[in-house]
Give the backbone structure.
Amino acid sequence: MELTPSDPGARQLIQSYGGHGFTIAGRRHDGAVLVFPDRTLPWPVAAIGELAEADLAAVLGADPPVEILLIGCGEKAEPVAPDLRARMRQAGVVIEATDTGAACRTFNVLVIENRRVGAALIPVP
């Protein structure tokens, strides 16, 4: 699905998703990614059920710190383990898990609003 952000500037806006990957700031990324307002990183997670705190180390170490982490779970939203959600909250990061499309759209809006946001995205076919 193609998304059409207003003014991308130097930000990592998500332009499209699908086909097992993403187009972010004009560059194609195959597979799962971590997206921050200033950079995009590969992310070796294939399913939310296997998500561990170590998989979010880049989020916890981000500068500036991430306050909201959108997790795109794939084609449908899935729950994040309560203990992981609690540990991230203690670190100052609120997790919002949705389907990947909703996470992409919300990420773009929050980036344009200059919010301290990150997105952990599992691709959809």
Remarks:
- Residues 14-121 form a domain with the Hypothetical Protein Mth938; Chain: A, fold (CATH 3.40.1230.10).
- The CA atoms of residues 52 and 62 lie 17 Å apart.
